[in-house]
Amino acid sequence: MISVQSLVNGLEAWVQEELLARRRFLALLDEQEAAVKKADGPALERSIAAIETELEAQARRDEKRARIFDALGEHWGVAGNALTLTSICERAGAAAARLPQLRDELGAAAERITRKNRRVSSLLNAHQKVIEELLQALVAIQGGRTESTTGALVDAEA
Question: I need a labelling partner for 117 at 20 to 30 A (CA). Which of 27, 29, 68, 128 fits?
Fold first, then answer.
């Protein structure tokens, strides 16, 4: 059986790898946001492809985390999926001295990604509404019938 210290060391390495991945993901979201703001279709396609690649790599990192959690759970007699970074810090004690700080950094990175995702999503929704309203206006100009008779243009940069 692998020692708790070895498993915690592996977990710390995983957290550091995950932090780097989240920084890369945040940078990709920044690129996506810039592409949307500039209405740069090719740049948007490139950013989406890069995000998809990063998400595929995320699946491999998740598997690695699950293996480490399962091994720690086996050592402590609990299911690996019942463990959290906080509970591992508590159980491992001094062996996990660096883990609380890494856990906090990981949580902060997750919050930044969530905020950026919401902002990009709102921006994309605003762009979609503007395009729909423009199309409805064009249809109305051509004498066609639109689904909605009212609407408002929005400032997408607001």
Answer: 68
Distance of CA 38 to CAs 10, 29, 83, 134, Å?
Answer: 42, 14, 44, 18
| pLDDT tens, position by position, 124-138 | 888 888 888 888 888
For 127, counting Cβ atoms within 10 Å of its Cβ (0-12 exposed, 13-18 middle, 19+ buried), the class is middle
Say how far apart CA 62 and CA 39 lie, in whole Å.
34
Compute the Cα dihedral for 79, 102, 58, 125 and give only its sign. Answer: positive
Which residue is associated with the tokens 């995320």?
58
Q: Do residues 103 and 13 lie in contact, with contact meaning Cβ atoms separated by under 8 Å?
A: no
The full set of domains in the chain, from first to last, is 4-117 (1.20.58.300)
Q: How far apart are CA 91 and CA 93, in angstroms?
A: 6
Instruction: Give CA–CA dist 27/32, Å, rounded.
Output: 9
SS3 state at 109: helix
Report how far residue 38's alpha carbon sits from residue 41's, in angstroms, rounded to the nearest whole number.
Answer: 9
Query: pTM of the prediction?
Result: 0.76
Q: What share of the chain is helix, strand, coil (3-state, %, to 5)?
A: 80, 0, 20
